[in-house]
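[Automated response] Your request has been received and processed.

Submitted sequence:
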Amino acid sequence: MIRTIVFDIGWVFVHLQPRPLLDFLAENGAGTLDLESVVTRIGLDEHESGRLTGRGLLERLAGLARRPVTLEQVHAKWVDMFELQPAMVDLAHRLSERYRVYLLSNCGDLHWAHLSREYCLHRIGHGALPSFVAGVMKPHERIYSLAERRFGLDPAATVFIDDRADNIEAARSRGWHGIVHSGYASTLEALDRLGCRI
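Generated structure:
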């Protein structure tokens, strides 16, 4: 029987719309970039695992531009890339009335502060473990074991909802149930199959 539901954030509670950031960089001489090439060049994994400060990340982003840009400008574009998914947020709040609900997400301190301030995602459920706090990112097994200890999870009674199959497989390897999230309706159906009451 499921007693705990753990949610990812990106592509679950918020969708990413990086075009304003990419256009800003292009307008300032960075050339044509996609989000994947940007995050590779700035070493986003260092930031999201807590090894690179928010200021350090902004400096790397600013360094992609050929023309001078301020860190304030870069920060505004870096955090302005989220589209809230109200149905999923509402689902998590409803589930938290019957289950223990937690957040487990690859996220740096800049995005976490913005998502908390603008959308109050930190108020969902009963706790959160962003990767910059954990010091390690999904799908590394250590972040799941840390979540188990921090939240007192029983793997056999826990379901993890994440948009990436590799993150779900890592959770399943520890005995968790998993749902690869592709949309509200399919996730709702998967929870129903697990016997979760909503």
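Summary generated for your ticket: Residues 119 and 152 are 26 Å apart (CA to CA). Strands lie at 4-7, 14-16, 82-84, 100-105, 128-130, 158-162, 177-180.
If you did not submit this request, please reply to this message.
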